[in-house]
Amino acid sequence: MKLLGFLLVTVGFIGAALAAVVDREAIEWLWYVPALAAGIAGVAMIRVDMARHSKTEHHVAANIETVETSLANVAANIKTLNADKHSINTYDVRHKIDELFVDDLEKFVDARESIAHRYGLIAYGEVMTDFAAAERYLNRVWSASADGYIDEVNEYLEKASDQFAACLDRTNKLKLDAASQI
């Protein structure tokens, strides 16, 4: 299906371009519109195939594993950073955040839609609510670190740590609930 989609895109857009070039004063609409429609149909076929592929069980399982691993890494790192916050210079906390969290947060975000495919939209919404709050707190810590506000860094590191732990707990609970239903 994807190959046919690429073929339609190629034929459609080349045909539309040729129809527009053949007669610059009056575009041959008789050729242009169907060629453009074929190209658009090809794009639609490619998107449908990609959506179908992203929902396959193998893809979802790999992404769920990525979600769980990256979230566990983030929760462990934030807990460690929170415990060490008094021994780190306030201005250096933002550098620690960049060092410890960027890769795992990116992996989580890239794979997060699989939560909805595996556990449903309500579960996805609940996990993402916790995650969004935790990420907001972490962003606030980064900003407070850049500005040198030690009290705010300490307060929001604690909140971020609690929120990421809640997100990890919710994700683990979803996994246990799904396993118990089998």
Short description:
87% of the residues lie in helices and 0% in strands.
Question: What do you see in this structure?
Answer:
Helix 1 (2-22) packs antiparallel against helix 2 (29-54) and helix 5 runs antiparallel to helix 6. This protein starts with a helix and ends with a helix. It contains seven helices and no strands. The protein has 182 residues and is mainly α. Helix content is 87%, strand content 0%.
Q: Count the helices. How many?
A: 7
The major sheet is characterized as:
none
Number of strands: 0
Low-pLDDT stretches are: none
- C-alpha geometry: elongated
Order of helices and strands: HHHHHHH
The first-to-last residue Cα distance is 33 Å
Radius of gyration: 24 Å
Oligomer: single chain
Structural class given helices, strands, pairing?
Answer: mainly alpha
Tell me the β content.
under 5%
Task: Give average pLDDT, whole number.
Answer: 87
Helicity level: over 70%
Key terms for this structure?
182 residues; 87% helix
